[in-house]
Q: What sequence folds into this?
């Protein structure tokens, strides 16, 4: 599998949650939507500071970035191996969170056939320790095909003046995510152009 599916997108959303306006993450970086920062190439600050966005926009930009910025390096890391949907989903989640798929030794071990070494190596990327839960879910998805998303996401507002996420509410985002996939055809246009032209 070489394309993102709604199931893959929903899995990653379940790990990240959605914050509808810009907030400061745990190290003070301005972040928005499904963990999007200025480093992604989509300007978050000051664009979304004090400007809550509809879920359609939050998820649409996330899907565009996932496909245009994160999928290519993940596919390159797999080399000639054609990943399953579960493998691709777990690797994308890992890369979205770390930005390190190109230098992660576990993926190289996997492609070389060292499945046990790859499984163990993935957990070496659990720093800070709070990431261990996420790495275990990614590991379970990649190696065992166990999906953890139920199609819902925690959607947060922002507390001020701290600009920290607050008041999370679980919302079913499956139908919205699936409908956004349907609007991206024909495939020759970017998702961003189709959603926000």
A:
């Amino acid at each position: 599998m070489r394309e993102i599916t709604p199931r893959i997108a929903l899995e990653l959303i379940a790990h990240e949650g959605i914050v509808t306006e810009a907030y400061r993450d745990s190290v003070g970086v301005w972040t928005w939507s499904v963990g999007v920062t200025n480093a992604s190439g989509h300007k978050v600050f000051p664009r979304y500071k004090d400007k809550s966005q509809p879920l359609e926009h939050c998820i649409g930009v996330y899907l565009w970035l996932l496909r245009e910025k994160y999928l290519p390096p993940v596919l390159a890391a797999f080399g000639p191996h054609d990943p399953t949907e579960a493998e691709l989903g777990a690797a994308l989640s890992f890369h979205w969170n770390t930005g390190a798929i190109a230098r992660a030794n576990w993926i190289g071990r996997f492609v070389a056939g060292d499945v046990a070494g790859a499984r163990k190596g993935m957990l070496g990327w659990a720093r800070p320790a709070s990431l261990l839960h996420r790495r275990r879910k990614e590991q379970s998805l990649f190696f065992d095909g166990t999906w953890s998303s139920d199609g819902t996401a925690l959607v947060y507002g922002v507390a001020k003046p701290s600009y920290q996420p607050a008041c999370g509410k679980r919302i079913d985002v499956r139908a919205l995510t699936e409908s956004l996939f349907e609007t991206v055809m024909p495939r020759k246009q970017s998702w961003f152009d189709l959603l926000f032209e």
